[in-house]
Amino acid sequence: MTLIKSISGIRGTIGGKTGDNLTPVDAVKFASAYGTWLKNYSNKDKLTVVIGRDARISGPMIHNLVVNTLIGLGIDVIDLGLSTTPTVEVAVPLEKADGGIILTASHNPKQWNALKLLNEKGEFLNGEEGAKILDIAEREAFDFADVDSLGEIIPNDAYMDIHIDEVLELPLVDAEAIKAAKFKVVVDGVNSSGGIIIPKLLDLLGVETVKLYCEPNGHFPHNPEPLKEHLGDICKLVVDEKADFGIVVDPDVDRLAFISEDGEMFGEEYTLVAVADYVLSKTPGNTVSNMSSSRALADVTKAHKGSYEASAVGEVNVVELMKKNNAVIGGEGNGGIIYPELHYGRDSLVGVALFLTHLANKKMKVSELRASYPQYFMSKNKIELTPAIDVDAILKAMTEKYQSEKITTIDGVKIDFAENWVHLRKSNTEPIIRIYTEAKTQQAADDLAIRIIDEIKAVAGI
């Protein structure tokens, strides 16, 4: 059982002992710290925070604890109820709120939940802001409101529809072209809020939808991370239904993966590549992704005469570099699309609508579209951490071993070889070391990963 505190929020498993897991006490403590931080750095007499949650089994419990903690601090809560991460991000500036909290552990299994924290722009907090909240939580420096100054709850269940409307109004979303294409699509909503919002969007775009695991009951039918090894059911159903492709989202709908018409993975790395190709064809400019993302985005950006830059892993880091470089599209290779025309946050709805438009314009099969892009293959692995494993020592040893290669250390260690690369980093959300490799064949990527993992284990003595 685990409790992970980071600048992006608090994440842990439900149950167990306070301080070791995400217990009710920990949820209240961290919500108190966030609310106190907002009050400390605001000149306003009355603050408002937008709250939404995914469909996790623990969602209603954590939701009630967090909402009522903010009420106790004298903060008004706009309660979206069942929602998505990008929906809350869209709602915060539209409501002119002072912040937002999404109650979701994203791709983690059902025993996990988390508080993901937003600023007044509906964007994730930066490192300095997150550190201040952690300090407030550690000191328990809370000052709750008196009985005449308590906050109030303002229910608003319209925001998934508002979010969809905002997406449909984007100039690069061509609803008429999508309707004319008469697509048939299978949707795997992993029994969370994506099972509601993605079919709604598709219906308005005139897409015939076959639903798979779209009941928002929190009982995830498979590991909710949208990776190939978890998606056998939808891969089969796409072929059985003779669908044009499949759509897979994670529980909070900020990661997006596609299944080609032949039942093969389009590749979550190529979600961003395909959407960026379309956006850059209409609005030339720069792109950004994180260091663990495919080289294919850089290749496509260069083909459109743009400039590509890589950030440290983490949405806040991608967004910061996107703003600095005036990127027209960006995101993460895990299927996260960030399209600033709507908002600076990973958004599967934006990704679906832009991908459908791209496909309608191209008039080709999804497998053909995938084959049109530079061919790279990734291997994504991890090593479970124990207290005995010294991650810093491991990373230092690997840096020294490969010092003759191109090394980047802004986030773990990335080693760029001529034909492939490996990125080693400690996860911000799980007690693991991530080992990502990419090469021009799957075998080469897998072989590199095996070699590096063996070297790490030798250094760590495991």
UniProtKB/TrEMBL annotation:
Say which enzyme class the record assigns: isomerase
Q: Which gene encodes it?
A: glmM
Q: Name one GO molecular function term.
A: phosphoglucosamine mutase activity
> What high-level taxonomic lineage is stated for the organism?
Bacteria, Pseudomonadati, Bacteroidota, Flavobacteriia, Flavobacteriales
Any Pfam family? PGM_PMM_IV
Q: What is the originating organism of this protein? A: Flavobacterium silvaticum
Q: Which SUPFAM superfamilies match?
A: Phosphoglucomutase, C-terminal domain, Phosphoglucomutase, first 3 domains
Q: This protein's superkingdom?
A: Bacteria
Identify the GO cellular component terms for this protein.
Answer: cytosol
Q: Which cofactor does it need?
A: Mg(2+)
> Which keywords has UniProt assigned to this entry?
Isomerase, Magnesium, Metal-binding, Phosphoprotein
Please give the family membership noted in the entry. Answer: Belongs to the phosphohexose mutase family.
PROSITE patterns linked: PGM_PMM (PS00710)
Q: Which residues form the Alpha-D-phosphohexomutase alpha/beta/alpha domain?
A: 8-142, 164-263, 270-376
Return the protein name. Phosphoglucosamine mutase
GO terms for biological process, alphabetical: carbohydrate metabolic process; peptidoglycan biosynthetic process; UDP-N-acetylglucosamine biosynthetic process
Question: Which positions fall inside the Alpha-D-phosphohexomutase C-terminal domain?
Answer: 397-453
Entry keyword Isomerase? yes
Name the EC number(s): 5.4.2.10
